[in-house]
Amino acid sequence: MNNKLNSTYKIKSHSLEIKDVDSKSRKVAMYLAHFGNIDSDQDMIVKGAFSKSLQERGVESTSNRKIAFLRHHDWKMQIGKFVELKEDENGLYAVGELGSSTLGSDALCDYQDGIIREHSIGFKYIADKLKWIEDETKEAGGYWLVSEVALWEGSAVTFGANEMTPVLEVGKSEEKSKIITTITKEMDTIIKALGNGSRTDDSLYSLEMRHKFLVAQLSEIASLNVEALDVKKIIEPTPEEKSFDWSKVVTNIK
Length: 254
Prior knowledge:
- By secondary structure, this protein is of the alpha+beta class.
- The protein has helices spanning about 50-55, 100-110, 175-195, 200-225, 230-235, 240-245, 245-254; strands spanning about 10-15, 20, 25-35, 45, 70, 75-85, 90-100, 115-125, 130-135, 140-145, 150-160.
- It has two domains: about 10-160, no CATH class; about 165-254, no CATH class.
- It starts with 9 loop residues before the first strand and ends with a helix.
């Protein structure tokens, strides 16, 4: 248990469904956490784990330190505010209202374009609310039952909370194929998002830099001895990419 409690700030990622995005009201509905499943930290969060935090710092609380709606867990990047936070049978349900600032507007574009697909929570474990449950049917021999946490914020995460596994650590050609497929799908999403004329210069620049990073990953894969994979064909741009006017993007970010 000591390893879990060696930091006052923990991040837990959830690739859960975004329920709805309303561009007119600038509201997005989502789940920030799920109940009843064992995650990669060997944690099972149960209903009620967020109830105290919601009471003390939730939407309807009188606290001036309410649970924040952030980007990338960066407290300098508050993209809006939560207008609804509640526990239901599935998990921690949230509705966030995006602000009219540049950060909020960029986040709205990213939701609409499918760039934001996941969310994370920033929280603290409570020592006496963790219990190890032995279960030989589980790979780790059991799991941690989490009955309460101190929830501080929920974050929108671009391209997932965790960076992709470094390609040089991939051994099997099947895994290389999956990574290449994942990268190319993400590149296609970026290409489409770059055509969104309502984006700010900073947002366009971030997308272009991410695209460059993904191209570099593909180059690393191509330098490996990848059997049964036509990497050149995979890297070849799609008709949409060929017709995309990159000069407009460069002009916008200068």
